[in-house]
Amino acid sequence: MKRLLCLLAAGIPVFGTELPPCLSQGTLVSSEMAAGEVGEGVQVLDLRPKADWDKGHLPKSKQLTLADENFTEKVKAMMDPAKPLLIYCRSGRCSPKAAKLLREAGFSHVDELEGGMDAWEQAGRPVER
Prior knowledge:
By secondary structure, this protein is of the alpha/beta class. The protein has helices at 2-9, 21-24, 31-39, 50-55, 71-78, 95-104, 116-122, and strands at residues 28-29, 43-46, 61-63, 85-88, 110-113. The longest helix has 10 residues, at 95-104.
């Protein structure tokens, strides 16, 4: 719903037309927007190592590193490619590569958390342990 409101506010037509590729495939989102997505039940994937995930992660997130063998196949087994997916790493540096791979593997909508877990924590957002 928030995405629809943002599009309307930006003057982008949303009914009867396809969304521009940058919006239909995913975007770089702030911790504030990501918090709304997490609250709306979006799928969440943490790209950091398991040891970092154990120290704290976004609510309802699953963990898998980009370096894992058969990364895209494993993500497909964990997540529904037809549903929106929010991905993040520690600082936001490795999520663009993962987002590109996931889009190429058939994920229809992949958002990246701007600034990664560092930005999430700096904004005082909730962390699960």
